[in-house]
Write a structure and sequence with these properties.
By secondary structure, this protein is α/β, with parallel strands linked by helices. It has two domains: 236 residues, Aspartate Aminotransferase, domain 2 (3-Layer(aba) Sandwich); 122 residues, Aspartate Aminotransferase, domain 1 (Alpha-Beta Complex). The strands form three sheets. A seven-stranded mixed beta sheet has the order 1-9-8-5-4-2-3, with helices on both faces. A hairpin with a 2-residue loop joins strand 6 and strand 7. It is globular, with a radius of gyration of 21 Å. The mean pLDDT is 97. It binds pyridoxal-5'-phosphate (PLP).
Length: 376
Amino acid sequence: MATSPYSIPLHKPFWGREEEKAAVAAMRSGTGVGDLTSSESLAHKITEITTSRYVLPTGSGTAALELACSILLSKGDQVILPSFTFSSCANAILLAGAKPVFCDIHLDTYNINLDEVKKKITKKTRAIMLVHYAGMACDLEKAGILAARYGLKIIEDAAHALGAKFKGRHLGTFGDVGCFSFHGTKNAASGEGGVFLTNDYKVFKAAEIMREKGTNRSSFMRGERRKYSWVNVGRSLVLSDILSAIALEQMKKLDKITELRRKNASYLLKKLSNLSPKIVLPVESEGSFANWHIFAIRVPKRIRDIVIEGLRNYGVEASFHYLPLHTSIMGKKLGYRRREFPITEEVASTLIRLPIYPQLKKSEMDYIAEVLQKVI
Ligand SMILES: Cc1ncc(COP(=O)(O)O)c(C=O)c1O
């Protein structure tokens, strides 16, 4: 892929010499396969940071979601999730033989509307998939009450949410399973990569086997058995030790990354406040400590694409986000129609993502604000 033609790209990984050195060291020390020392250290570091009991590095956030669904769901189950999310969420449910049941979101947080979730619960509902959009927490207290009342599992898609918290606790640690992503666009990045988190020993054990082609190789790698063999149906979802080494360095910088993004968000919010109410600015939701993975504004539908184009013409890589799943080609195949989820459609057609990465300078944010004003 070519390098970004924009002077201010949408994403810039916060990588330095530490990540380069760690990747080279991992390459020199062995074969780079999963479950070696860097993967182990990465899992320990994430346990230490999040306090989640069991942590498994995976090849991607998608892999973590697929692991979660294949373990928690059975054929014919239904899972309620927002339509305003990435295809990986619905794919993971479908690949487990279950049915994704889409739901609308809130206009202020872009997170799933739990009152709407309640209306969609049936005898077949097995789980709710919560997506913490932009690293802003869903209402986890309300979700917990709902799940307990109806005996549902919670799968937290925390792909955006490394370092973000709800009432002081890390996102991804509230549900039966939490899933993080180390995709190159995420706050902590290893190019591709992800993490599966759980506090449930049985779920962890099943995941460990499923993740390693259905074998007990992970326990063999820890020296707990002399041989490993095939024990169940499985997939290949481990994270290479080279990528784990990069992810580990990123985890060491997570507080710094979060702090810089929070600083940038508050500076941009101040700079753009004079454009309100022409544009809708993001707000940190109740109880949420956001990691500002995404800085999303909204503008009137009729000018959204023109504003994106205008920003791009001035070298600022702005973007739309999430074409709703229910209006996608696959969504239609599942029987969904346009106008079923009005808030989702409103948000998807008015949202603009602006650059917010840690290295962004004040002068660059001044420039973004100036260009936005001019374009609008
Ligand atoms: C909400 C959400 N979940 C899951 C994923 C998939 O993560 P990955 O790219 O690591 O597979 C993404 C991708 O960006 C995402 O936005």
